Fold this protein.
Amino acid sequence: MAINNHIKMNFTSNSENIGIARVTAAAFAAQVDLTLNDIEEIKVALSEAISNAIIHGYGDIVGEVECEMFLSDDILEFIVTDYGVGIADIELARQPSYSSDPERMGLGFVFMDSFMDELSVESALGKGTTVRMIKKITNDKAH
């Protein structure tokens, strides 16, 4: 799979940076002929992944979030990594309405899973979490 374009962003775990990542993802996805709805879904999925990294990965401490975007001939791939507390039980965390924070709705992974074609989560306690999301590009949508 040849990579046609790649962006890597590192930023502190401030919620203000979610908007910057959303705009970047929209511009990156606009390189291929996706619908506005597809681009909006990508923005929501990426926002959720970054929000999880900030809120659940770091909580009240400031850490670093890494966001990578890849474009190949048939996919857009988004990888969000934090180096925070990690997820004790990934399967439980991916259940609808589950959240380690009772003030949260627990729908982040549900949105990521429904808006993207593939979702994988890797995590290690005390080391952080990596979320990988893929949006497939049909041949008639690729440039």
In short: The two ends are 15 Å apart (CA to CA). The beta strands are 3-12, 64-72, 75-82, 118-124, 128-136.
